[in-house]
Write a structure and sequence with these properties.
Number of strands: 22
Helix content: 25-40%
Distance between the termini: 41 Å
Structural class: alpha+beta
Strand order of the largest sheet: 7-6-15-16-17-14-18
């Protein structure tokens, strides 16, 4: 008697969901990928504006995990280039190299302020109990870098992004994003070069598809269909169908109910829980404490071929509301399509309830024009057009103590049979693309290969059994190049 073929629904076509569906389709699993928007890729999608390709903010790909790099190269083939990363911090009308360069920082801060910053750092180094970093982002960073550097280079940007004080932001954010950063190592590398391996968020080069980062997920979509799967865009999911603690299918926003054997969800965890029946009261209460931050991106078409050399600039100045400015001209020339104009993306962040989230497009565009001119980077008569993209629920907010309610939600979801949650939205984890791709791979293997991967453990402190790097020639694993 033939074995029944498993039917799987994957909710959400961002990096995690697209990867899960891609891997399942390759393994001859009957899979349907659902996406509420007209696009695949989620925040990592690319769009066309004014005849050029741009991303939804800066999205570079990097990973040390051979499994993730193998998938990425398998999908993109040779259609990528290596981009030399250049990023700076804009603070008090000056530009600082990021990561820090000793001579550059000294020139910008001045001898007195630089000495005060080093002194503040040394005070933290000799404090009794200095290894106690505390449970907030503020206490963690001050203990590692000193109060003055914290106020210069961490506080303002972080509070713009998260919408809460750094004293209310959990130390987990620092541990995930800047754990391996060291002032002494940064100065040593700046002065003498080489030395220890750089923290992964500070890589000097990254791989980038010729048509934008979303090209990866568009190709995954095509391969899913080629391998017999379905990709259903503009098809939002209302809720899951349940029988006791078993998921039996999905209910579409249209009201249609469809039976499935397994569900992989990357829809926001808060929405998923809020639409489930018979959820314990303590889980409902815990779920309501979890919040996401929204992004508004204002794209400006600028009549200039050379504005600034950076891929993007972090804006730490408190008098400007924008937090990051991306210059897509400086990624790969293919996305520019030989246009003379440059497209800049200016990012703003807010919560659902903020009045700022309800502005009309023209108001955002006028604000972005005003702020880019204030930086001195361009003149007002050079701005030719503007476009606004709103991205809801894109950053899980690590408020102080968030882990306790999240664990309640995790335990409840783990008790549901035939359900896996993945991705930045689905697992409430501040993932990079590589983390989400790995989650998607693991979820697919759990179904197709009966693996027992712990999805909640991705993007914590997991280490690779072997490391790899994508180069212009292909994949380097243990110093051996695997070409395409």
């Amino acid at each position: 008697m033939a074995k029944k073929k498993i039917r799987v629904a994957v909710i959400g076509a961002g990096p995690a969901g697209a990867t899960a569906a891609y891997e399942l389709a390759k393994k001859n699993i009957d899979v349907d990928l659902y996406e509420a928007s007209p696009h695949v890729g989620g925040m990592a999608r690319s769009i066309e504006l004014w005849g050029q390709a741009v991303d939804i903010g800066p999205h570079r790909f990097f990973s040390s995990d051979p499994r993730v790099n193998k998938i990425w190269l398998e999908v993109i083939g040779k259609d990528y280039k290596m981009v030399n990363r250049l990023t700076r911090i804009y603070f008090r009308n000056k530009f600082y190299m990021y990561p820090v360069q000793a001579v550059d920082a000294l020139k910008n801060l001045g001898i007195i302020e630089a000495a005060l910053c080093v002194g503040s750092y040394m005070i933290e180094r000799i404090k009794p109990g200095r290894n106690d970093l505390g449970d907030t982002f503020e206490s963690w960073v001050i203990a590692r870098f000193g109060k003055r550097l914290y106020e210069h280079f961490f506080k303002t940007y972080s509070e713009k992004l998260w919408g809460i004080k750094c004293s209310e932001l959990d130390a987990d954010f620092a541990a995930q994003r800047i754990k391996k950063l060291s002032l002494s190592e940064a100065i040593k590398n700046a002065l003498f070069g080489g030395g220890s391996e750089k923290h992964k968020t500070l890589v000097d080069q990254f791989a980038y598809p010729l048509k934008g980062t979303g090209q990866v997920y568009e190709r995954m979509k095509k391969n899913i269909i080629i391998n017999g799967g379905n990709v259903k865009l503009k098809t939002p999911i209302d809720s899951l169908l349940m029988k006791g603690r078993n998921v039996t299918g999905i209910k579409l926003a249209s009201g249609e109910e469809i039976k499935y054997d397994q569900i992989i969800s990357s829809m926001p965890i808060t929405i998923l829980i809020s639409r489930m029946k018979d959820v314990p009261n303590d889980v409902v209460k815990a779920n309501k404490t979890l919040r996401f931050r929204n992004t508004i991106i204002v794209y400006l078409l600028v009549e200039s071929n050379k504005i600034f050399p950076d891929n993007w600039i972090y804006v730490h100045s408190s008098e400007l509301k924008t937090g990051r400015i991306t210059n897509f001209k400086n990624w790969v020339p293919e996305i520019n399509n030989n246009k003379k104009e440059t497209i800049l993306a200016m990012e703003y962040w807010c919560f659902d309830e903020d009045d700022f989230w309800k502005w009309d497009d023209e108001k955002y565009i006028n604000l972005a024009k005003e702020e880019i001119v204030k930086t001195g980077l361009i003149k007002p008569n050079k701005i030719k057009d503007g476009k606004v993209i709103r991205v809801p629920k894109c950053y899980p907010v690590y408020e102080r103590g968030y882990k306790k309610p999240l664990v309640k939600v995790e335990k409840f979801l783990s008790s549901i049979n035939n359900l896996q949650v993945i991705g930045r939205y689905g697992a409430f984890k501040y993932n990079n693309q590589d983390h989400s791709i790995l989650m998607g791979l693991f979820a697919a293997e759990n179904i197709a290969d009966n693996k027992k991967h712990d999805l909640w453990g991705v993007n914590t402190d997991y280490e690779y059994q072997e490391s790899s790097t994508i180069t212009e020639s292909g994949l380097v694993v243990n110093s051996k190049v695997k070409k395409q």
